[in-house]
Amino acid sequence: MTIDLPLDIEQVKGFLATDEAQALYQQALTMAKRGPVLEVGSYCGKSTVYLGTACKRSGGVLYALDHHRGSEEHQLGEQYHDADLFDAGAGLMDTFREFRGNMRAAELENTVIPVVAGSALAARGWATPLSMVFIDGGHSMEAALADYRSWASHIIAGGVLAIHDLFPNPDEGGQAPITIYRLALASGLFETIEVVNTLGLLRRI
Question: Is 139 labeled as catalytic in the residue annotation?
Answer without folding.
Answer: yes
